[in-house]
Structures are given as C-alpha cells and as structure tokens.
Design goal:
Elements lengths: L1 H6 L3 H5 L6 E2 L4 E4 L8 E4 L2 H9 L15 H17 L9 H16 L2 H8 L4 H17 L2 E6 L2 H9 L3 E6 L2 E7 L4
Antiparallel strand pairs: 1-2, 2-3, 4-6, 5-6
C-alpha cells in the first residue's frame, strides 16, 4: 500500500515489481507501466525502504501473490476493522486503487502543476490526469475543517476547550475537527 501511496502505482504494477526494480541503496523504485502507463523511477521514503528490506527475497518478484487482485483481498480484513472501530463505513469503500487515486490527487494538490502530475501518474493522455484536478478542486472546496489528533485525555480536553468537536475515538486516540476560519 505504501508503494502505491508514494508512487501512484496500481495493484498490477506493484504485483509485477521485481527485485531488479528496487534499489535500496539509492532508495529508488522503478514502476513499469501497464495499461497505457509509462515507466518511471521514484524516490522512496526511509520507511518504505526499511519495509522492503524486511521482505524475504524468495524469488524474482517482490510480492509472491499469485494474482494482483489478492492485494484487495488482503485489505478486506483491515478496512472492516477500521469501519467497525471508527463507526465510519466509508472505510468499506477503500480498494487498492484508492491509494493510486490518493497519490495522484495529493501530488496535484501539492504542486498545482498538471503536467508534472501527468508525469508522476505516468499517464500517456493528459485527459486521464485532468480527472484528478476535478477531484482536488472539489476536495479543497469541501475541506472546510481543521482536523487534529489527540493522543490522551489532556490533549482532548485542550482541543475541546478550543472549539473542536470530537469526530471519532479509536484505540489510538481521538480525532477532532472545527470549521476553518479564513482571514
């Protein structure tokens, strides 16, 4: 999942990864495009490099799943746990491809550069990339809350006194929000 978040790779692109595509010393990964996507090399985070180092190198491929769709099967358990713990059924809508959408939308949100986002997404056709611009514009328009996270009751009390409302409680802490103020 972290590969998809950092590179925008699809499940089939992650599934096809070989150890030749991963350079842990330089912290790069090469995603070979499928279905009209180009091939591109990406810098990866220290966290992703550390996770990849922990994987056993049993064969040529990084992941030994028989089919790319097994990535979604693997997610099934975790999204149901999250939905149950938070009471948010939107987690049930998450699929592996959601991480590709997130990565591309977030890249455009940060850069506001459609051509660079097209390169990041490895799209051959700019029309495919333009879909993400609409997602980001709607997201920014609807993103009218400041969101914070409190790990303990002391932080929770502080945020509640500052006007935040409690959105969800998990075993890890509390998620709160309040409407943004524009100056």
């Amino acid at each position: 999942m972290l590969i998809a978040v950092e590179t925008g790779a699809s499940a089939s692109e992650v599934w096809r990864l070989t150890w030749r595509d991963v350079n842990l010393q330089d912290k790069t990964i090469t995603i070979t495009g499928v279905k009209g996507h180009r091939t591109r090399q990406y810098q990866i985070s220290n966290e992703l490099a550390a996770l990849l180092m922990q994987l056993p190198k049993k064969g040529e491929r990084v992941f030994s799943f028989k089919k790319a769709r097994y990535f979604n099967d693997f997610l099934w358990k975790y999204k149901h746990i999250l939905a149950r713990e938070t009471g948010n059924t939107d987690f049930l809508k998450v699929h592996f491809h959601t991480f590709r959408h997130f990565a591309i939308s977030w890249h455009y949100f940060k850069t506001k550069d459609i051509v660079e986002t097209q390169r990041f997404a490895r799209h051959c056709n700019i029309q495919n990339t333009l879909r993400y611009v609409h997602i980001v514009k709607a997201w920014v328009k609807e993103n009218e809350y400041d969101v914070v996270y409190a790990e303990g009751k002391e932080e929770l009390t502080k945020y509640l006194s500052e006007g935040y409302e409690l959105v969800a409680k998990t075993e890890w802490g509390y998620c709160l929000r309040k409407p943004k103020t524009f100056s």
